[in-house]
Amino acid sequence: GDLKQLRALTDEFTRFMLSYKFAVDEMMTKINILREEFSHRHDYSPIEHVSSRLKSPDSILAKAARKGCELTLAGIRSDLHDIAGIRVTCSFISDTYKIFDMIAAQRDVTVLQVRDYIKEPKPNGYRSLHMIVEVPVFLSDHVEQVKVEIQIRTIAMDFWASLEHKIYYKYNRAVPERLLAELRDAALAAGSLDVRMERLHDEVIALRDLGGADDGVMDAR
Ligand code: 0O2
């Protein structure tokens, strides 16, 4: 009867969401392995932190409706790329591309789409490296290819994006022009901070490789 139908429906939806959870778990393991192995090999970690989220059923439906995609699980699965999301925050711009390359090179990861908003920032100033990948999830009786959106950015880009996101929603997507201009300006400042920090980091590495820096450097601050 109705109850049985409803059970089947919720069961189908639960399995739909679970496949994204498994894909995130898998990608998180991959990224944590890269992070640990890299810091073992190079004495520093290119990754500051990693976070993940699954889109809530409410925002999945809202985005599906907004994009005008077919309102079935199959339609949503094919048109929404960010049900599973991972955000990797790095110290420096060069690290974001390193992480990108290491993920893209993995044999069971298929890169479906790349958006490089670092090379080409959005008009509002947003910078970040986005990739949509597909990973195989091995279930009891079949293998499923599941999409995950990965956003890779620096600490400065992340700082800017979280503030912009708050302002955007505070003003219900209609931000006053004065604030928009300030945000664009702040994005430029964040961009030049990234460049300066990376230059300093390169200098420290070069000094270290020359054996020029010793333990006294820390004490002399
Ligand atoms: P939320 O609330 O973070 O989930 P497409 O999916 O291909 O039709 P979309 O979604 O615009 O196009 O792709 P894009 O441009 O790669 O952006 C995807 C995500 O990047 C967004 O997800 C945000 O998380 C982030 N993002 C993109 N542009 C901006 C921006 O201007 N400011 C900030 N703060 N974040 C941005 P959602 O679903 O839009 O939002």
Automatic annotation (TrEMBL):
This is GTP pyrophosphokinase family protein. Residues 52-175 form the RelA/SpoT domain. GO terms for biological process: guanosine tetraphosphate metabolic process. Keywords: Kinase, Transferase. It comes from Mycetocola zhadangensis. Signal peptide: none annotated. InterPro entries: GTP_Pyrophosphokinase (IPR052366), NT_sf (IPR043519), RelA_SpoT (IPR007685). One of its GO terms (molecular function) is kinase activity. Gene3D superfamilies: Beta Polymerase, domain 2, Nucleotidyltransferase. CDD domains: NT_Rel-Spo_like.
